[in-house]
Amino acid sequence: MTLLQPTPGSRPQHILEVQDLTKMFGGVKAQDHINFSIEKGIVCGLIGPNGAGKTTLFNMITGIYRPDTGKVVFNGKDIRKTPVHRLVKAGVARTFQHVELFSSMTLLENIMVGMHVRTKAGFWAAVTRIPAMKREERQSRQKAEELLEFTGLAEDAHKMAGDLPAGRQKTAQIARALASNPLLLLLDEPAAGLNPVETHALGQLIRKIKQSGITMMLVEHDMSLVMEMSDKVVVLDQGKKLAQGTPRQIQSNEAVMSAYLGNG
Amino acid sequence: MQEIVQYLFSGITTGAVYAVIAVGLSMLYSSTELINFAHGEFVMIGALAMVTLWVRIGLPLPLAVAGAVAAGCMLGLVFERLAIRTARNPQPITLIIITVGASIFLKGAAMIVWGKDPFSMPSFSSHESIEIFGAALLPQSIWIVTAALVLAGGIHLFLKQTLTGKAMVACAVNKKAAWLSGIPSEKMGILAFGISAGCGAVAGIFIAPITMSSYDMGTILGIKGFCAAMIGGLGSLWGAFAGGLLLGILESLGAGLISSALKDAIAFVLLLLILYIRPGGLFAAKEAKRF
Amino acid sequence: MMTDKNKTIWIEYLVFLCVVSAFGLITENTYYLQIMTFIGINTLLALGLNMLMGYTGQVSLGHAAFYGIGAYTTAILSGTYAINPWLALVCAVAAAVLIAFIVGLPTLRLSGYYLAMGTLGFGMIVNIVIREWGDVTGGASGFVGIPVLEAGSLVFMSGASYYFLVWGIVFAAIIICRRLLASRTGRALRAIHDGENAAVAIGINTHALKLEIFMFSAALGAVAGFLYAHFVLFISPESFGFMFSIKIVTMVVIGGMASVWGALLGAAVLTLLPEVLHGFAEYEMIVFGTVLMVVMIFMPQGLTRGIMDIIRTARRARA
Ligand SMILES: Nc1ncnc2c1ncn2[C@@H]1O[C@H](COP(=O)(O)OP(=O)(O)O)[C@@H](O)[C@H]1O
Ligand SMILES: [Mg+2]
Fold first, then answer.
1. Which of B196, C64, C163, C269 could pair with B28 in a Cys bridge, judged by C-beta atoms 3.0 to 4.6 Å apart?
2. Residue closest by Cα to atom 27 of ligand 1
3. Which residues pair with A243 in a beta bridge?
4. How many domains does chain C have?
5. Under a CB-based contact definition with an 8 Å cutoff, are residues A205 and A190 in contact?
6. CA dist., res. B198 & res. B195, Å (int)
């Protein structure tokens, strides 16, 4: 399908390589020599108890934090010095653990602003309303409507994003991230706070996104969702990589089990 | 040499006044997260009340000082009750404009009470000035610096040693947690307002003998106080104090050695430099921004 | 094909044009025309600041600096150096935009109170420079000898001609702001306002965009300064000081943040109020301060929203 068509130009087999990543916050080692890589097109689960460093890892992959040592290679390029907006343009998108929609804008506008890196109209185009700008605006609107259709949010298009129920806001975040046509989509606890029906729908959505060829990383505490969706799972604990493998391998890994039990 | 020492003396004196203004602002900020643009007006009230009570009515000095400080505190409390507490939607920008409104109001009221003409006031003591390195150190200066140190020290002890003070610090750190543990954060807020306005009045009493006092003297003093508080690190008591002293000294040196025309610009250049290089202030620990 | 939203916008524009032209054509009283001209000039200031503060969420307590830069640039160029005022306008806007760029580069990295204090410091410095650079600016006593604006045979003197010049520019500025807000850039600005972290994360270069809008608001401020200088023909530093910066902020907040018509309403209220309050003589400041406090205490969303709320409750009460 063309809606989610990832930006062309990806060469290497691994879309993401994390090499020897370390990050300290004061005395806390939020990341401790992390290594792993993700093949193109898969869903990679990232699990671990609260405070394990999952969100921090996302923040480093998206360029919001810079690693103390080690590097992140996205699509064959070292992105240690790439500014966030360039990274988004290169194809990294994310959602937040705590929903951060733009609450004074409608849902449709939220999705349209998600296309920022794929659109061009600047100050002068807006003021003069040249035909190219009008065309771009029309296309953005249409694509946003399609994305809302795709994520099942079409009927809320003109509601204020802040007024939507929590579950829909979570989905809306995914739609907004998809609007930037990512190669790699990072989902931070997308199922937290969802009821079983919503979680099921989320699973369907993740599947559909995967079918369109987008690689995903999924941070989740809902184990059945992670194990069902993921091709590969990485386990973090206190900033260290505890294990990595297929869902089945992880489920039978004793270190992982004790980390979870040990932390309640 | 003699010149420079002289500049230092006068710089430290004005610096002590800035320090007291900044301490008041900073302590209010740390317990209520409010920046009070009317703070300078409390300085003005302190100075003018002092003129009236001491010079006009002829009260004994301690009584006059107590009266002027009380006037500042009372106005602070009334302002908090009437304007800050009643605000329906205490967004920072609305609160800023409320304090600006209060500042204009107080200025207008002072103009009616004291008129438009400036007042001068004799110094508190008539002792001879002391000569150090050939520069004259006025007893007035010793007075002011000592009193400023005592005041800041007193506030420090209050915050660190007394139960009420500790509760106030707790409110500053985390309002909700403080509330959960039974600290009445509302009372703490009004207390902070009272102390802060009192500090402003004290600064006014200090400055009255150094310069002319008039109804419109407050605004620029309040702004300089912000600069000092920012330079030292917003919310830090001794940071604000040090920021005030530093500002006073640099202004005095700059005015004497470079150009008196640019004296007022020094505070703002310094403020911008600090904001660009160390936005947390000179004495704040650098901390990573949470995302 | 015209959507409902488009239609209401055109109706608003039509009403605006009718009211403005009717007032300009009917009123003979030069005092009223003069006040209305000042409202127009202040509207430009409020519009610019509203783009930065209301829509993008970046407070500036130094906006009067750009007003002053605009006014003094045109005064010096056209007054001292006898350069054509319209060319001076271009220079004034260029100067303001350039200074906004240089100052904004470090300042707009700050946020909250730090940004407020940074812009305040900048405004103070500009004002001190104007006051102390006496050889060029006339210093504290002000600048005399600003030429009258002319275009062909048309002379813009106080009265209806200047009134129409100013309000024509206001109308253009309103359209520009509206178009900007309804575009990709406008959405990105509002995104920064709603959540800067999320705005960064979806790929908006927030710093560059803030800088852009800061420069835009500076340009509008400079145009306002230009219009002011050639209207009053004598300028002095007090008109561009800290208190005026605060007054512009107040226009935006009182009128209602993030509202184009709110900027106009705020400018009107803050321009008219002192005129009305002249009757109170020495009680003027007390009343002005009280009005500010009362409006902010009871209508924190500004008059536009506040009045709409009152009407709504009244209707509900009647029903
Ligand atoms: N900006 C920050 N400053 C200080 N400490 C942080 C910051 N961000 C995260 N941390 C710390 O890093 C650790 C990992 O946090 P996080 O990545 O949020 O964990 P998770 O998402 O796995 O629950 C925690 O101890 C957290 O307190
Ligand atoms: Mg997390």
1. B196
2. A51
3. A235
4. 1
5. no
6. 5
Residue A49 CA, ligand 2 centroid: distance in Å: 9
Residue B135 to residues B1, B3, B130, B132: CA-CA distances in angstroms?
Answer: 9, 7, 8, 5
Domain for residue A64, yes or no?
yes
The model's pLDDT over B78-92, given as tens digits with 9 standing for 90+, comes to 988 888 887 766 777
Flag whether C221 is in a domain: yes
What distance lies between CA A141 and its chain's CA centroid? 22
Determine the distance separating the centroid of ligand 2 and the alpha carbon of A249, expressed in angstroms.
24
Domain extents for chain B?
Answer: 2-114+137-288
Write the ipTM.
0.90
Asked if the Cβ–Cβ distance from A93 to C202 is below 8 Å, we say yes
List A99's β-bridge partners, or say none.
none
* Residue A198: domain span: 14-103+180-261
Is A43 inside a domain boundary?
A: yes
b vs e for B210-220, b when ≥16 Cβ sit within 10 Å of the residue's Cβ?
A: beebbbebbbe
pLDDT digits (tens, 9 = 90+) for A148-174: 999 999 999 999 999 999 999 999 999
B260 at the C interface (CB within 8 A)? no
Q: Considering the entire predicted model, what is its pTM?
A: 0.91
High-pLDDT (> 90) share of chain B, %: 34
CATH number at residue A233: 3.40.50.300
Count CB neighbours of C159 within 10 A: 15
DSSP class of C80: I
Res. A257: pLDDT tops 80:
no
Question: Helix, strand, coil: what percent of chain B each, to 5?
Answer: 75, 5, 25
Domain that holds residue C218: 4-241
Give chain A's domain count.
1
Distance from CA of A136 to the nearest CA of C (A): 9
If residue A245 lies in a helix (H) or strand (E), which one and from where to where?
A: strand A240-245
Task: Please report the DSSP string for A166-194 in residue order.
Answer: HHHHHHHHHHHHHTT--SEEEEESTTTT-
**Do the domain assignments include residue C275?**
no
CA distance B139 to chain C (A): 33
- The runs of H, that is alpha helices, within B33-91 are 39-50, 61-79
Whether the Cβ atoms of residue C289 and residue B79 lie closer than 8 Å to each other: no
Q: Is B85 helix (H, G, I), strand (E, B) or coil?
A: coil
Does residue A112 lie in a domain region? no
Say yes or no: domain B2-114+137-288 is CATH 1.10.3470.
Answer: yes
Residue A95 contacts B where some CB pair is shorter than 8 Å: no
Q: Is residue C310 one of the residues assigned to a domain? A: no
3-state secondary structure of C265: helix
